[in-house]
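[step 3/7] inverse_fold.run input=structure_tokens len=168
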């Protein structure tokens, strides 16, 4: 049996040597977008959100988390910031915070299938298979072409010994 597929595009692997130097260079790579934010004067929640995305892509989870926190502080209805912060918490091994933030993202934007798919994946990872299936079903309802949600729902049914349901 294979593993469930991941929605997350951020690669959280770290090199065993030179990790600190790699972090410095990655942070410097983010400097242009961070400088643009600083030069504009007053930053918007979207400015912080996109800066967080860039930092997260580079594996700088703590730094990205700080940007998502600021985006949410400026706009408590920023569903994507909650969703990306949840993904960051997942990389940092904080499942309770992941569930909390995906729950808030879904409350704010119940029509985004990716929030359900990601939360379903976390439910699956912590053994809450029924909740996982519910979230995968909702992701599929919202986005019928979501192959990852279909696969993960089938994978979960297979784990539960329900191969006949895995195909539907």
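[step 3/7] decode complete -> sequence:
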């Amino acid at each position: 049996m294979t593993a469930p597929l991941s929605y997350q595009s951020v690669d959280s692997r770290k090199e065993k040597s030179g990790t600190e130097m790699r972090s410095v260079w990655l942070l410097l790579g983010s400097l242009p977008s961070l400088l643009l934010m600083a030069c504009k004067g007053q930053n918007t929640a979207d400015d912080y959100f996109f800066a967080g995305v860039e930092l997260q892509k580079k594996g700088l989870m703590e730094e990205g988390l700080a940007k998502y926190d600021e985006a949410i502080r400026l706009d408590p209805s920023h569903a994507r910031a909650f969703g990306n912060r949840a993904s960051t918490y997942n990389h940092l091994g904080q499942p309770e915070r992941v569930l909390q933030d995906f729950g808030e993202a879904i409350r704010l934007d119940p029509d985004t299938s990716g929030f359900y798919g990601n939360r379903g994946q976390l439910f699956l990872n912590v053994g809450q298979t029924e909740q996982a299936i519910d979230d995968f079903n909702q992701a599929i309802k919202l986005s019928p072409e979501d192959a990852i949600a279909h696969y993960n729902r089938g994978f979960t049914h297979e784990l539960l010994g329900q191969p006949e349901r895995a195909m539907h």
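[step 4/7] annotate
DSSP finds ten helices and no strands in the chain.
The radius of gyration is 17 Å.
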